[in-house]
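To illustrate the input format used throughout this study, we show a single complete record. The first block contains the structure-token representation of the backbone; no residue identities are included at this stage. The design step must infer an amino acid for every position from geometry alone.
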């Protein structure tokens, strides 16, 4: 009991020696800005390729579908785009689909001219003073043997960076 009394006296005796905590204030500020570019297409979209005859796949005459990818940008901006295969790919330009033996061959155009493009690789385009007009071209192709008739799907992921 004596020890407890001494401890209480020591603690009580040091209380007046304790210093008040200092206070500090940190002010944080910033500015929100609009991105240098905006896309004219939705972040998620469905592309309907229509019906393709198996004979067209056999002789590689299936039509391609063009998907516009237009960006409105401030002058002297850059758009970087990486396209990745959601279900896998056969090569650097062909997506796998949900239907065995059927792929989707991809191409990328910049104002109608073929652009350098490979799945998984990032391409960058400067924007001087007018919209960037890219076109994704999608064409069904046979991957060796002809696939069975039926519906299919595929997924293409796009990562877009503006600077």
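Output of the design step:
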């Amino acid at each position: 009991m004596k020890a407890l009394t001494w401890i209480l006296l020591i603690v009580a005796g040091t209380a007046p020696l304790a210093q008040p905590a200092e206070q500090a204030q940190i002010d944080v500020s910033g500015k929100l800005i609009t991105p240098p570019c905006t896309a004219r297409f939705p972040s998620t979209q469905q592309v309907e390729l229509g019906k393709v005859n198996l004979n067209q796949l056999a002789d590689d005459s299936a039509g391609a579908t063009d998907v516009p990818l237009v960006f409105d940008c401030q002058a002297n901006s850059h758009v970087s785009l990486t396209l990745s295969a959601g279900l896998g790919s056969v090569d650097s330009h062909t997506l796998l689909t949900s239907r065995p033996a059927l792929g989707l061959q991809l191409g990328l155009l910049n104002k109608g001219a073929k652009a350098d493009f490979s799945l998984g690789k990032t391409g960058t385009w400067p924007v001087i003073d007018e919209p960037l007009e890219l076109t994704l071209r999608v064409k069904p192709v046979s991957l060796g043997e002809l696939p069975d008739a039926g519906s299919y799907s595929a997924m293409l992921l796009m990562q877009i960076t503006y600077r």
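Structural context for interpreting the output: The mean pLDDT is 90. The radius of gyration is 31 Å.
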